[in-house]
Amino acid sequence: MPNGLWVRCEGCKGMLFKKVVEEKMFVCPECNYHFRIFSRDRLKLLVDENSFEEMWANMVPCDPLSFKDRVTYPERVAAEQQKTGLKEAAIVGKGKINGREVMIGITDPSFIMGSMGSVVGEKIARIAEKAMELKLPLIIISGSGGGARMQEGVFSLMQMAKTSAAIARFQGAGGLYISILTDPSLGGVMASFASLADITIAEPKALIGFAGPRVIQETIKRTLPKGFQTAEFLLEHGFLDRIVNRQDMKKELFRMISYLQ
């Protein structure tokens, strides 16, 4: 049997015909598990065809600390760029949703787990400023399990304050900001721009929080509530406004923007 015809669902553990999963927008037809997807695939699902104009696509990180673990930081970045076809963990730009113009940003978990370094923070801040300039709604889709990027030290941590300040200026000018949390949404991204929206939406069963549940449990030495840090748990406790299936996301975004903008 040729390789690549089947994929394993992490939700129900079933073997699925890959073409069927792709036709369902990378959602399991049996249990509704939402697979992690590349940022470019997500763009195809959310914005109108040929409407996306990427901005600041050639920004790449520097190596302020001369950081090295198993390999140097520049070597790690180069390997990630080759593996993913991305320059960095965030794609930002202008697009249309059913004809309505929006500014949109996406962090991609396939690039160093979507961690936020200086380039990701700068792109998020710039897209917020551009949305304020053009008076357009701002949509940011977070898929970040890496938090602030340790290879850049304090330069990475300061992006939390920078992106939060940019979002605050945009909202202070009357802008509409919608945050979409996907699996995973953790760390410094979740502790900054991802949690500051006017409307916060999540995909089903997305892992959302600051530290992961295993780290918390090992630190406090207590058993956590069932489903702790899932989208459903957070909706029940008032952290989220809605949970929206991926197949319905574009329609729901258009409805919200049409009503609120």
UniProtKB/TrEMBL annotation:
C4-type ZnF: 9-31
Swiss-Prot/TrEMBL catalytic activity: N(6)-carboxybiotinyl-L-lysyl-[protein] + acetyl-CoA = N(6)-biotinyl-L-lysyl-[protein] + malonyl-CoA
Record keywords, A-Z: ATP-binding, Cytoplasm, Fatty acid biosynthesis, Fatty acid metabolism, Lipid biosynthesis, Lipid metabolism, Metal-binding, Nucleotide-binding, Transferase, Zinc, Zinc-finger
Compartment(s) where it occurs, according to its Swiss-Prot or TrEMBL record: Cytoplasm
Enzyme class at the top of the EC tree: transferase
Cofactor list: Zn(2+)
Recorded family membership: Belongs to the AccD/PCCB family.
Note describing how the cofactor binds: Binds 1 zinc ion per subunit.
UniProt-listed Pfam families: Carboxyl_trans (PF01039), Zn_ribbon_ACC (PF17848)
Protein name, per record: Acetyl-coenzyme A carboxylase carboxyl transferase subunit beta
Function, as annotated: Component of the acetyl coenzyme A carboxylase (ACC) complex. Biotin carboxylase (BC) catalyzes the carboxylation of biotin on its carrier protein (BCCP) and then the CO(2) group is transferred by the transcarboxylase to acetyl-CoA to form malonyl-CoA.
Enzyme Commission number: 2.1.3.15
Pathway: Lipid metabolism; malonyl-CoA biosynthesis; malonyl-CoA from acetyl-CoA: step 1/1
Subunit structure: Acetyl-CoA carboxylase is a heterohexamer composed of biotin carboxyl carrier protein (AccB), biotin carboxylase (AccC) and two subunits each of ACCase subunit alpha (AccA) and ACCase subunit beta (AccD).
Chief place of localization: cytoplasm
Gene field: accD
Residues the entry annotates as binding Zn(2+): 9, 12, 28, 31
Domain CoA carboxyltransferase N-terminal: 5-261
Record's keyword annotation contains Nucleotide-binding: yes
